[in-house]
Amino acid sequence: MKYDVTVIGGGPSGLMAALSAAEHGAKTLLIEKGKKLGKKLAISGGGRCNVTNRLPQEEVIRHIPGNGKFLYSAFSIFNNYDIIDFFENLGVALKEEDHGRMFPASNKAMDVVNTLINELKRLNVTIQMSTKVHSISYGDTQHTIQLDNHTNIQTTAIVIASGGKAVPHTGSTGDGYEWAKAAGHTITKLYPTEVALTSKESFIKEKRLQGLSLRDVNLSVWNKRGKAIITHKMDMIFTHFGVSGPAVLRCSQFVVKELMRGRDSVTMHLDVIPDKPEKEILQWMKNQIKTHPKKAFKNSVKGIV
Questions:
Q1: Residue 27 — φ and ψ, nearest 5°?
Q2: Which of the residues in the chain have pLDDT under 70?
Q3: CATH architecture of 2-182
Q4: CATH number for the segment(s) 197-274
């Protein structure tokens, strides 16, 4: 079969790429090696799917891990507000939560997944599930995709949307790097950018804080001189293995980079009441003790410590 555009990978990027190609009149094929489309989308945001963010474009780019400026050119064509319009026009009602995060009003990631799949069908995109790509031969005007079942696909354009190496059980096993390399792209050093972090601290190992979640704290990553490299004010949670949550995910790439520089461990600093100076907190504590002299100290400072 011959296609104008062939998209490899049925994750969020692949689904959107196939939809865009079909909307522009291209005869489109979507190839997915797994049994389900949008697998990673379905588990994102704790199963609720954080669709996008309503904050101004500058703010969104500022919070992208690493070099967010690369998004300027893409955003000039399709930005975060276009994403909101896109889903609402397809009947997916969205709601805004803290820090501008947008979720489906139903709190169901599958509503987003199913809407995209239905739109693919409406636009007559050909979908091949449980189909693995063996190799790609690039030509000047036509390319050949060899499948594992020995059939060949002829296509004018290829979109490699097979994901990186994050969450391998969803199918992101890094296949696309070699295909991109064969097409002449440069693959830079790979490292995780938004991951939970592990710790060998005794209070983590003994699970003394497991399940404790904190809101709007300042979490910083320190360099070996004890200076903050990055600070994010967001929520976080202590887990059985370390720390996680939005603030940790935002800080994680800086921890990874420090470890890549040869450090055995990296210090993180937590300010649980970032908006109040020490003197004010101390005075509040003194007032609490004075006002409730018979109250146990641990109960007086409950909610802070």
A1: -75, 110
A2: 303, 305
A3: 3-Layer(bba) Sandwich (3.50)
A4: 2.40.30
